[in-house]
From TrEMBL:
The keyword Signal applies. This is Receptor L-domain domain-containing protein. It comes from Oncorhynchus mykiss. InterPro entries: Rcpt_L-dom, Rcpt_L-dom_sf. Residues 55-165 form the Receptor L-domain domain.
Length: 197
């Protein structure tokens, strides 16, 4: 009977260890390499992204979000903390991208061989929808590559975002042109970092 108790205790201990280890492991997912091309319809592309990134913490590769309508829900991106490649946000109509937990872009691959973060032309042509807020409130490091944020007519910003503190590669470019109007810095305003960060 003592042997049976020992086996039972060992099984309980192993089960607890497996559960504990599973709780501390980071969820890693694969990125994409499509750049500005799309596969299938917008719905197919959205469904693939949702399946790939729900619960993901580390994107091994690139995070590319392109050609999405304003009514899409991207809350499934909230858990992402790190991207090893680049982030491309282009030709979308949604108002906010919830990458609030993102802390680091490694830039092991770069968009157009130059940019770790590219935010391009995110507004509805002749319409009222477009990117107003990136939600990158915890982004602290871009290890390789620069930043390109251009032609986002609804994306306002504060000039206090110091990209040179975030971009660690001193030779990389930071290009910010043709976006929404500059806002005054107001630390009391909720989400004042809804600018480019």
């Amino acid at each position: 009977m003592t042997g049976l108790r020992q086996v039972f205790a060992l099984c309980v201990t192993l089960t607890w260890l497996q559960f504990t280890c599973a709780q501390t492991q980071e969820v890693i997912c694969s990125g994409t390499q499509n750049a500005l091309s799309v596969t299938g319809s917008s719905q197919t592309q959205y469904t693939l992204m949702k399946d790939m990134y729900s619960g993901c913490e580390i994107v091994m590769g690139n995070l590319e979000i392109t050609m999405m309508e304003h009514w899409r829900d991207f809350t499934f991106l909230q858990s992402i903390r790190e991207v090893t490649g680049y982030i491309l946000i282009a030709i979308n109509q949604f108002s906010r991208l919830p990458l609030d937990q993102l802390r680091i872009i490694r830039g092991t691959t770069l968009f157009e061989e130059r940019f770790a973060l590219a935010v391009l032309v995110n507004y509805q042509k002749d319409g009222q929808h477009g990117l107003e807020e990136l939600g990158l409130t915890h982004l602290t490091e871009i290890l390789e590559g620069g930043v390109q944020i251009i032609q986002n007519k609804f994306l306002s910003y504060t000039p206090q975002v110091n990209w040179l503190d975030i971009v660690k590669d001193g030779a990389s470019e930071v290009i910010i042109n043709e976006n929404g109007p500059e806002r005054e810095y107001n630390p009391a305003q909720k989400g004042f970092m809804n600018t480019f960060v």
